[in-house]
Each structure stands twice: as structure tokens, then as C-alpha cells.
Amino acid sequence: MKRTIKKVAVLGSGVMGSRIACHFAGVGVQVLLLDIVPKEAAESTNKAARNKLVNNALQAAIKSNPSPIYHKDALKKITTGNFDDDMKQVTSCDWVIEVVVERLDIKQKVFEQVEKYRKPGTLITSNTSGIPIHLMADGRSDDFKKHFAGTHFFNPPRYLRLLEIIPTPFTDPAVVEFLLQYGDLFLGKTTVLAKDTPAFIANRIGVFGIMAIFKLVEKLGLTIDEVDALTGPIIGRPKSATFRTADVVGLDTMVKVAKGVYDNCPKDELRDTFTIPSWLEKMVDNNWLGDKTGQGFFLKKKSDKGEREIYTLDLKSFEYKPRIKKKFASVEAAKPIDDLKTRLKMLVQAPDKAGEFYRHFHYGLFSYISQRIPEVTDEIFRVDDAMMAGFGWEIGAFESWDVLGVEESTRKMEEAGYPVAKWVKDMITSGFKTFYKVENGIRLSYSPAAKKYISPSEAGQDSSAFIVMKNFTNQTVWKNSACRTYHLGDDVLGLEWYTKMGSIGGEVLEGIQTSIGMAEEKYRGLVIANEGQNFSAGANVGMIFMLAIEQEYDELDMAIRMFQQTMMRARYSSVPVVVAPHGLSLGGACELSLHSDKVCAAAETYIGLVELGVGLIPGGGGTKEFTLRAADEMHEDEPETITLKNRFLTIATAKVATSGAEAYDAGVLRHGVDEVVINQNRRIYEAKKSVIELSDSGYVMPVQRKDIKVLGRSALGALYAGINGMWRANYATEHDVKIARKLAFVMCGGDLSEPTLVSEQYLLDLEKEAFLSLCGEKKTLERIQSVLKGGKPVRN
Question: What is the spatial distance between Cα 164 and Cα 484, in angstroms, rounded to a whole number?
Fold first, then answer.
């Protein structure tokens, strides 16, 4: 049957329920959010009193940071109510999601209520993380059981991309297929099919990893600060590392999952790893549960000077002590290495205490995941997908094993007392030396059941819409030390770069220019994207700082010209250029997006022109482009300065859109031209598809504009007055005023006596002149230096 989801009921408005409701509303679905009636309002007829719990929970979610929604307008799609008065409304819902307290009896009672009103065929799922899915369906009708499954979202649902789908023996396979596809296409999730086993996949592996580290703390005599220094970004894990992650998740939650696995998995070979250390039991007894109670492994205090300081728990004395940034020789040596796989190999081979930790840590993890196949899932790629999407790992566990060498690592693991599942040994004996390999741009994974490499489609997963740039390494058509250009098939080129933070310097500009030139010769067009944590933090400000400090103004002038010319090359090429940004897409990355034929932005794209923060104005065509767009947006029925002022303020306040949806409001994305792709993993595919569509529809190279209306002195005076007002109100420093006045001068077309039509090149020249002059300002250099040293600009 063809199934559409127009309205969803979310039962339970706690931290998870309210945020799941926000995420569905954020993707355009009508949501009914219900919870219990507060005890004090049980006899009340006042609707507000009876809905107080659900309304307060929703407001708390809305006010939380980061925001659970893509755009504030999404909140209009959420209706609240309570179980007693409004459960009958589930009749109008296409999907009912239960997110109440983790007690089987309460869940079964809620499902009993739901079944009174649920229309046949309606999806019904539970977001439980600890209760067997099949138990919750006991006593329900055949139609209920047929349409019932587990849908385990991770918190926060908007940002953590994992959605585990857990069917029961009664679940209709068509329902499972729909949930996997809907989660991917409409909710932007990495959907992973999991078996109905304790903690499913991600929590089973993830909590094992944390508990194993707790054991290593005692075995190797490590401190909390030492472990977090070893288990963060240095090995491709989130900044929260291990103990900070535990504080965020909540120690009570983690202990509950660990105990659940221990109690319900008597045949788990490493079951004892899930026993709770005495010091962790003591912390739970003390109600030191992490962020939710204000203290856990870490405690935030204010110093005598009123500054926030972080203290770390000493597990021996049970006192909080000032945080110590521990350094290990091997870690310090590995930090300059940008490539994670090279870094990982170096760390595991290190002869110091850090190397010993990494060997124990990885060998234990590899041993455990090998023995969870086929218990939690039949396919290894589902384990890796779950850990990357649910726990924020940069590469999966089996992929890490590949990096360290499967055969060599297996031998060393067994020598160190870490057993390996028989299927891994059989795989090696049969001549399969890696868990993954790439063929024709598609990553194949070894299947223990089939005893061969299989494609995702052979495992029941449609991956046709997922393009991974690195899988096309064998189809590289050009490269330099910062970039690669691939043939993505269908006569479409793809350019990626892998600089630190995705910064755009001379080699990246060369890559853009060269790739466009190659596409013009014999291809349909070009996709510009990458798969780093962020698309790009902008231009290489380190290079700008160095040239400015040394007063190399001729070279600086040439660098700005090169940047502008490259952006204009992207705009005025004879083939379509489509940019697919994600994550941070700031400054120069935003300018590149502004000059592309189309932007296919991930929903989680944080984009904006932020140059004012470092004492500059957008100098790569961003100021010109915003002026051009302001001119095109001017209407006869409103003052011409309104649109210009709005565009000016967006740059002057260094505004960053915090989602693809907000990027339309910020004027970066264009309605009817650009698109937002909810699933980040699909954006490169969508960009490639857009190149083909633009090419096949008779793409014609645009003509440079010479008809941009600038307003001259009339608007300049108004903008100067506004800037002066901001300074008088103490919202802007004197240097802020200087920068803003230069920005206004460019956007008004200079000191013109009347409105005039000018060319793009005219505005680019003004933009370059202003940028260069600001590079000579001492306070601008102080701001750039502050960013380079600490990541934040000083306000001077």
C-alpha cells in the first residue's frame, strides 16, 4: 500500500518526546503531543491546567540550546493535549509514537488506550531503549502487532542522525521497509535495522566501550582528564570524549543500560564488563548524575574572579579538583597529522602509556563487535553506521579494524588475550583481508553469513542515492595537496578538499578554477562538496594575517583578486556549478555558495558572512552579491533603503543561519532555486542530479551584470546614522563603527550623488579596496590573531 505521513501523535512529552515532536514538525508534519494530566488538575475542567505538564515540557524544549527545530514557524504544526481528554485524536493520525516512562506495565496501559481509537493500518512504534519490543505488543490485536515496531531515536533527535528500526516477529516486512525509507528520506536519519536484543546496536556497543574504559581506568591507573584527552577528536570521537559524554547522557541512564545488558545477556562473553564499578555506584547514590543534577564526573564552579572553571572528580579521594590538561608524547606527536587513519595507526603503535591504552581499548572493542555478529545484526556495516550516527564516531569500529590491519590486529589481539569470533578467523583464512572494499564508487562489506562481499542493496538497503566522494578515489582526474577532482559518473565532476577546518586557500582556489575548466572541456558540470566534519570555516585567515603583518600588500591584493575571480568563475562558467555545503559554511564558503548556480545544502548547515567578526568585510564577492540581491529585491511600494538595510545588517552583525531553513531568511539561499536536503548523506547525490538537470535543460552561461542599482549618498547617510546610533548605545566599538562604515560605503556604491546603475566589477573593486584597507588596521590584526590562537575574536 502507498503510505503517507501527514500527522503524527507523540505520546509522552519528556526530554525525548518533546524533541521528537519538534523534529517531526521541523520537517513539515502535523504533530499531536500528549501527556498525562497533572495530579493537581485531575478534577479540573480548565484545559490549560490539564495540559500544564505537556505545555511546560514543550516550552522547555523550544528554549533549549541548541534549538530542536529548523525554523520557528515549525512550532505552528504542534498541537498539545492530554491522554484523558485527547487520546481519541489519534484516530486522525498516521503514526503513533510512544515515548512514556521506561516501564512495561505503563507502556502496555498506554497501548491499550491507543487501540481503542487507532484506525486499522496506522503505524504504532515505541522509542524504548531498554524494554524488548515484542513484550510491549502482548495482548494487542493482530493489526496492531502487524504495524508495531521499535523506532529508537537518539537525543537530541534533530542532531543525532541515528534511528534504529527494531521489528518484532509479527511486524509486516512492508512496515519495516517503510520506516527505514521514511526515516532516511523525510527525517534525515541514518536508519539502521536492528534485532530485538538488549540495548539494540548502538547502546550495546557504545555503553560496552564506555564500561570497558572504566575498567581500563583501574587497570592502567588513569585519571578522568587523561582518558578524555585520549578518547576525543584525536581518535575521531566527539569532543565530549568518554567521561564528558557520560555526564551529558546521565550516569543513571548509562548504569541502567549497563545493568540491563548484564541482567538480560547471560551468554555475553564479556558480560562482566557491564558490572558497575563501586565508585560509579557511589556517584549514583550521591545523585551525582551529570549535567541533569549539576555535577557528575565534572563540576562547574565560579572562581573568586567570577570566571567559570571546570573541576574534575578524583576517583580515589572523591573530591573535585582543578582540571588538568594531561599531555602524552605520542598524542602530541600525532596531533599535527590531519588524516585520522594515519594518526590512528601511529597512536596504537606508540610505546608509551597512551599507546598501551589504545591497544587495550581497540582490541577489546574489536573482540566485542566480532562476537555481536549475528546476535545484534547480521551485517557489519550496520554496526558502523549505528556508531557513527548515534555516538558521533568519525569512522566505525570495523572500519577502524581495517585501518589497523585485520590479520595483524587479530594475531596481536589473541596474543594479548582478546578472543576473536570464529567468523573473523574463517574470513581471514578464506583470503578476505578487509571488512570493506570499494568497487565502482560503491562500498562493499564482508557478510559473515554469505561469506563474501556484498553491496548495501544485497543487504536490503537502498544506497543508490548516497554518493561518498572518497569512494571515487580510483576515478581521480586531477589533484593537488589540498584537493581532489573525481569523475562521479554520468559526465559529472566532483571536487572536494580536505584542509584543516575546510579552509579555503590558494590550492583550494586552484582546485575550483581547474575543475571548472576541466568540466567546461568535456563534462556536464561540477559538484563542489566535501565530507569533513564541516564544509568550510572560510578563507585561510592565517595567510591573510601573515601577509598583512609583513605588509605584503601587493601579494594580499593579488590573493583577494584571485578569490574574487574564482567566485566569479563559479558564477560565469559555461557549465552548471552546484555547491553542497554542510555544517559550518562560513565566510568564503558562504561566498562560494552565493556564486553557484544552485546550492544543495544539508539541513544542518550553519552558513553566513562572518568577516566583521575578524575586523574585515566579505572580500570574495560576498558584499557585492548581497548588494546585487538587495537591488533585485527593491520594490516600488516600500522605501528602497529597506532591503539594502536588511542586507547590510545581516553582514554587519555577522549573522549565521543555524539551519538550511534559516538560510532562506538570511538571504543566502534563494527560494525556487536552491534546496535543503534533510539527509546530509544525500546532498552530494542531489547536487549531482541538479547538475544533470541544469545541463539537460539547455544550460546557458549567465552574462555579467552591469545594471545593479546602488543608492549612493541618500542611503549612505541613513546607514551611517544607524551605525552611529549603535555606537552611542554601546552596541558597537569604535572599530566596529569603522568596519561598518566601510561596508556601508561599498554597499551604497560609494560617494555617489544619486542612485546609479553599476557593474559587478565596480562593486568588486570597492569591496577589495575596503578589505585591503582594513588589513592594515592594528585592531583588525588583533582580532585575526585572537581567532587563530583561541578560536574566538577579541572585541576591541
Answer: 34
Half-sphere exposure (CA, 13 Å, Cβ side) for 447? Answer: 15
Contacts of 49 (CB under 8 A, 6+ apart): 38, 40, 41
Residues 376, 290, 107: CA angle, nearest 5 degrees: 50
Return d(Cα 300, Cα 315) in angstroms, integer: 17
Q: Are 280 and 214 in contact (CB under 8 A)?
A: yes
* Residue listed under C-alpha cell 541514518: 190
pLDDT digits (tens, 9 = 90+) for 585-620: 999 999 999 999 999 999 999 999 999 999 999 999
Spatial contact of 148 and 124, defined as CB atoms under 8 Å apart: yes
What SS3 string covers 644-677?
A: HHHHHHHHHCCCCECCHHHHHHCCCCCCCCCEEE
Q: Are 348 and 362 in contact (CB under 8 A)?
A: yes
CB 233 within 8 A of CB 343: no
Q: 789 to each of 308, 585, 784, 786, 793, how far by Cα in Å?
A: 20, 20, 9, 5, 9
Residue 410 DSSP SS3: helix
Q: Any residues with CB less than 8 A from the CB of 768 and at least 6 apart, and which? A: 557, 560, 561, 564, 619
Per the listing, cell 516477529 goes with 169
What Cα–Cα distance (Å) separates residue 783 from each residue in 591, 769, 774, 788?
A: 21, 20, 11, 9
Asked whether the beta carbons of 207 and 258 are under 8 A apart, the reply is yes
Q: Specify the DSSP class assigned to residue 274.
A: G
Q: For residues 140 and 123, give the distance between their C-alpha atoms in angstroms, rounded to a whole number.
A: 14
**Each residue of 75-90: b (16+ CB within 10 Å) or e?**
bebbbbbbbeebbeeb
Cell 567570577: give the residue.
Answer: 306
- CA distances in angstroms from 739 to 6, 117, 622, 715, listed in the order given: 49, 62, 15, 17
CB 167 within 8 A of CB 149: yes
C-alpha dihedral sign at 471, 476, 479, 484 = negative
How do strand 30-35 and strand 7-11 relate by DSSP bridges? parallel
What pLDDT sits at residue 637? 65
d(CA 699, CA 208): 54
Residue 135 has pLDDT above 90, yes or no: yes
B/e letters for 450-474, b = 16+ CB within 10 Å, e = fewer, are eeebeebeebebebeebbebebbee
Beta bridge partners of 164: 152, 192
Contact call for residues 51 and 81 (beta carbons, < 8 A): yes
In 247-330, the DSSP E strands lie at: 298-302, 308-313, 320-322
Give backbone dihedrals phi and psi of 120, rounded to 5 degrees, phi first.
-55, 140
Instruction: Determine which helix (DSSP H) or strand (DSSP E) holds 190, and give its type and residue range.
Output: strand 190-193
The CB density around residue 483, as the number of other CB atoms within 10 Å, is 21
Cα separation, 376 vs 164, in Å, equals 12
Rounded to a whole number of angstroms, the CA Rg of the chain reads 28
Upstream peptide bond of 266 is cis (omega within 30 degrees of 0): no
Q: Which pTM was predicted?
A: 0.94
Q: What is the DSSP string of 312-340?
A: EE-TTT--EEE------HHHHHHTT---H
Rounded distance between C-alpha atoms, residue 93 and residue 90, angstroms? 5
pLDDT tens digits, one per residue of 630-686: 999 987 766 778 889 999 999 999 999 999 999 999 999 999 999 999 999 999 999
Please say whether the beta carbons of 194 and 200 come within 8 A.
yes
**Residues whose CB falls within 8 Å of the CB of residue 639, separated by 6 or more in sequence, listed in order:** none
The pLDDT value given to residue 695: 97
